[in-house]
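Researcher: Going back to the complex we discussed earlier. I've cleaned up the inputs and rechecked each line, so this should be the final set. Can you rerun the prediction on the complete assembly and write out the structure?
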Amino acid sequence: SYELTQPPSVSVSPGQTASITCSGERLGNKFASWYQRKPGQSPVLVIYEDTKRPSGIPERFSGSNSGNTVTLTISGTQGMDEADYYCQVWDTSTGIFGGGTKLTVL
Amino acid sequence: QVQLVESGGGVVQPGKSLRLSCAASGFSFTSYGMHWVRQAPGKGLEWVAVIWYDGSNKYYADSVKGRFTIFRDNSKNTLYLQMNSLRVDDTAVYYCARDREEQLVRQPLGYWGLGTLVTVSS
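Model: Rerun complete. Updated structure for the full complex:
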């Protein structure tokens, strides 16, 4: 079965740029989405189709897809961005989530 | 305003059944694919099942295939998950989610409910 691999944790200082990666076979042939999940809240879609931001998502969130890796980048990271982040793709008609990355803003 | 409200969670013994519901409002329910996603304690998100906007197809994660059934009642704007032969490792918060765009498939999950907790324990 298809798998997506994310680093368990990423740390960043306020105001700096955070990058969270997600890798999988032939990932460049799929569209990836990213979800933010804060404690006690439901997940929120922050990036879809690799690079697109839903309305209401700050411009500091961006995405890219290259080869077998997709990357979520948060520029000028703020304390409110501290959360778990999950990548997600469709493998034929089955949804696949990465294991999640805990972003800590130190 | 899109609203998804899950219900039906609770404590159930291994091997028993449970049915979850998700009441949808604020959008044209029949135009959107709907999903169930779960998160076990201390674990990450796990996609469980999808039903296409027109109900023509349903797909499941391998971990629940043959035990869980997703279905929808468009007259009641409600999504369901029938869970049979429950196992301890099915313990999780179950979220209902909606496709981001209407009348398309393999969409990002654009809206999520608050979830309902299912605990499988003897």
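Model: Worth noting: Residues 91 and 119 of chain B are 5 Å apart (CA to CA).
Researcher: Good, that matches what I expected from the previous run.
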